[in-house]
Amino acid sequence: MALKIEGKNLTIENVVKVARYGEKIEFSDEAMEKVAKCRSIVERKIEERAVMYGVTTGIGELAEVILTPEQTEKYQKYLVYSHAAGYGKPVAIPDVRAAMLSRMNVLLHGHSGCRPVIPETLKEMLNRGVTPVMCQKGSVGASGDLSPMAQMALVLIGEGEAFFNGKRMNGKEAMDAAGIPTIKFEARDGLATINGSNVVTGMGSLEIYDAERWLKTSEITAAMTLEVLNANMIAYDERIHKVRGYPGAMDSSENIRRLVEGSELLKQKGKKVQDAYSLRSTPQVVGAAKDAFKFARDMFNIELNGVGDNPIFFEDDGGTCLTGANFQGTPLAFGLELVGTAVTTVSVLSERRLNRLMNPHLSMGLPAFLTKGAGMFSGLMLSQYTAGSLCCENRVLSHPAATGSIPAAADQEDFVSMAMTTAIKTRQILENANAIIAIELMAGAQAIDFRKPVKPGKAVQITYDIIRKYVKRLEEDRPIYDDINKLTEVVKSGEFLDKVEEAIGRLK
Predict the structure, then answer these.
(1) 143: preceding bond cis by omega (within 30 degrees)
(2) Would the N or C end of the chain have less CB density within 10 A of its end CB?
(3) Domain 204-504 maps to which CATH number in 1.25.40.10, 3.40.50.1370, 3.30.390.50, 1.20.200.10?
(4) Cα–Cα distance for residue pair 33/187, rounded to 1 Å
């Protein structure tokens, strides 16, 4: 059954289904009626020779240039041509699909003034698997993601490039192969297709989804380390977190209590009165990330279902055309900056727990570097180097792009969000974070082997079994780069989270 979209009902989970798993979409009749009604307003105003930004005028610093009727007809094609000025490797196909879905949902509000054929053509491209090639770099996040979105728009008119059936080809070839008619842009169509922060919205929606799942996987990882280090679980008592009051900390402490339930490892003697911060502060740190993610999710849910466009048309008083700055990507940039900062911080916590597993002075009786032949063998020593280097890189990437405005368009666009830069670096932060967690998991499994026959709890045992499906116990030194890369892909796949939640129920 196809997902029906109508402008106001899109969720991050919907975006994931369509962008990554190819779920088909359809439009509600009511939404298409709004698009048609708004278009009639634009056409009437064009006949009246009304001055409308980007329709009968140029854009940016050229907004004061009034176009002739003949120029109005041709302008939209040249607008798209001039804005297709990006650089670099193609944006990932799921990110492009997410951007297309986001833009369609904007148009279905019936405030953009394009012809109904624009969202209809985008829908067919999405449903039949025609994915425009967009250069990753070039957007400043205001007026939206103009450069990559212009490359998307080129395919509608049979130009540019697209991926179809696993091949990269010219836009006309892809559209013909998919059986989708190309179109000719008329007044307003081109700008309506490109004028929003929709690449950031699409990419960021997928990143938030991934970050939330990664954070739960980090709790599973923390639970394993807590068990093998015989942590003092008083720090996870519900009363401690309730009395302070942060929702994320309460949820995280509850998750970890559930994850370690039934652990024999935690029943051993020799606990410390009070553990180090990296063990004791997990609910406070991970909980803060949960609360940060909620803010980011709220911002993106608003953007997914709002009207990010300029100008915007309203039916009142016979049709009003208002110009503003709803393309501005700053709300999205702030959300993703917070996600990147939170993931980086939780990754540092993971690396510090990993250090405690390696260090014989801190590991509660485990052998140095988790090897039985320390001296002759170095064990997992160098895996901590890798985690440390990734933490360092993430700290650099956490420097905000959202404060980095560089004016454009002869200072008419004198403040821009740089939200696309934020989205690009947030994706890299997540990539690194997956590897950091994978390294801690590998070390945790090695530590469990040294604790046998004492058994972990149910959730940690499941986690251990998944690790051992992909990575063998380190009996003597061997190259481990393949183990790290393989386990990182397992973390990214969500297998740890899915299997654990299957067994103990959904984590908060």
Answers:
(1) yes
(2) N
(3) 1.20.200.10
(4) 19
For residue 144 the two structure tokens come to 């939206």
Residue 257, token pair as written in the block: 């209590």
pTM: 0.95
Distance (Å, rounded) from C-alpha 416 to C-alpha 200? 14
* Residue intervals in the chain for CATH 1.20.200.10: 204-504
Secondary structure (3-state) at 137: strand
Task: Check whether the bond before 400 is cis (ω within 30° of 0).
Answer: no
Cα–Cα distance measured from residue 270 to residue 188, given in angstroms and rounded to the nearest whole number: 72
For 139, which DSSP code? -
Residue keyed to tokens 């930004």:
53
Catalytic residue numbers, as ranges: 53
Helix 419-451 vs helix 198-228: crossing angle, to nearest 10:
20
Note whether 499 and 466 are within 8 A (CB). yes
Q: Which residues of 84-109 are buried (b: 16+ CB within 10 A; e: fewer)?
A: bebeeebbbbbbbbbbbbbbbbbbbb
Which residues of the chain form CATH 1.10.275.10? 3-196
pLDDT tens over the chain, length 508 residues:
899 999 999 999 999 999 999 999 999 999 999 999 999 998 988 888 888 887 888 777 777 888 888 888 789 999 999 999 999 999 999 999 999 999 999 999 999 999 999 999 999 999 999 999 999 999 999 888 999 999 999 999 999 999 999 999 999 999 999 999 999 999 999 999 999 999 999 999 999 999 999 999 999 999 999 999 999 999 999 999 999 999 999 999 999 999 999 999 999 999 999 999 999 999 999 999 999 999 999 999 999 999 999 999 998 777 888 999 999 999 999 999 999 999 999 999 999 999 999 999 999 999 999 999 888 888 899 999 999 999 999 999 999 999 999 999 888 888 899 999 999 999 999 999 999 999 999 999 999 999 999 999 999 999 999 999 999 999 999 999 999 999 999 999 999 999 999 999 999 9
Distance, in Å, from the CA atom of 480 to the CA atom of 255, rounded to the nearest integer, reads 31
SS3 label, residue 155: helix
Exposure class string for 293-303: b at 16+ Cβ within 10 A, else e: beebbebbeeb
- Retrieve residue 107's tokens: 């148009």
The whole-angstrom separation of Cα 413 and Cα 334 is 19
Fold of 3-196: Fumarase C; Chain B, domain 1 (1.10.275)
